[in-house]
């Protein structure tokens, strides 16, 4: 349910499940983490990385010291890099010439060997699909996915980019808001990221957006400000599976994994600037159906 002013109010179904789960199939619990506890990895220079996964995607959040590097091997599939700090600066080496990028950026790193080097202290977010098994195994919540969640549709790989594999860099501050468009949405062959525009102050609680997804998870990454995730688990026939409504306060940086078909909405509560980034895998069909919403749609064909 969306407020009439929300661009999502006219959306159709996000997906059409090929086989709906039985009504008694358990519904997974939401997972929340703030990136300030024990890291999954620590580099030789002391830079921590926290890893959290969903069924089809994972997020690696690194706090890099100047000169430290994040490396991926030749067998690595395409992945996304997000810089969310105004003074961020890294150099990415992949196929082609190295590229030094600054500020708030979303970049797509092509398949193959890559290196991300911090030119100054910088927080780096990497989003991978679940085929990156070495990192998935080190996720803080890896035990939650020892078996696939039956309510989540499997990963689908969309067509190859129209102009071939290459490093793609999208400066976010160059993308102005447009009436009727929802956030700043990008897709790859396996991922979709919506880097929402900053909001100032708390969200109007009379214009929240409770809704659900039939068969995919949502990762909600808070990178600036404070939020409350409101989540309601629908009742199944088995009362043992029922849960109380959740109203979970989080700071930044933090990540919530929201399972289907929970009803959810998130409200910014910080008095300053608040920024939330939503992550999906595979790319959402309903967002892709909206003309002009996916900003790199001309590069990544539809499934």
Note down, in words, how this protein is organized.
The chain is mostly beta strands. It has one domain (7-289): Sandwich (Jelly Rolls), CATH 2.60.120.10. The chain is built from two helices and 21 strands. The strands form four sheets. Strands 1, 13, 14, 15, 16, 19 and 21 form a seven-stranded antiparallel beta sheet that branches. The protein has a seven-stranded antiparallel beta sheet with strand order 2-3-4-11-6-9-12, with no helix packed on it. A hairpin with a 4-residue loop joins strand 13 and strand 14 (192-195). The longest helix has 5 residues, at 285-289. It is globular and about 55 Å long. The two termini are 27 Å apart. InterPro entries: RmlC-like_jellyroll (IPR014710), RmlC_Cupin_sf (IPR011051). Residues 1-25, 238-269 are annotated as: Disordered.
Main beta-sheet annotation: 7 strands, antiparallel
Tally the helices: 2
Compute the average pLDDT. Answer: 95
**Helix-strand sequence:** EEEEEEEEEEEHEEEEEEEEEEH
Features:
21 strands; 303 residues; 7-stranded antiparallel beta sheet; mainly beta; single chain; Jelly Rolls
Give a brief description.
With 303 residues, this protein is mainly beta. 3% of the residues lie in helices and 35% in strands. The protein has helices spanning 133-136, 285-289; strands at 31-34, 41-42, 48-53, 57-64, 69-72, 79-83, 89-93, 99-102, 105-109, 114-118, 122-129, 168-171, 184-187, 192-195, 199-200, 218-224, 227-232, 246-250, 254-258, 263-268, 273-280.
